[in-house]
Amino acid sequence: GAFGAEFMAGMHGHELIRALRYKLRMMGVPLDGPANCRMDNKSVVTNSTIPESVLKKKCHSIAYHYIREAVASGMSRIAWEPTESNLADALTKFQ
What we know:
This protein is mostly helical.
């Protein structure tokens, strides 16, 4: 469903963030603070940011732990973005 797809997309995005941050550090670019990631699925944001939350499906556990590790380490910060103001989401919709 949408929950699993959002988690997988979030993991892929965090893989790209980790790689980009590594490359920038290798070039001597100082990094100040976490990357801001905005998602439009409140359940994914809740499960990614609140340590007490529990994932009920094991099939998404790798993505879940990858994103949680990125948040806990300070590499990224996740926030909810409403669908109405999410410009990237509009590009994925065909009407």
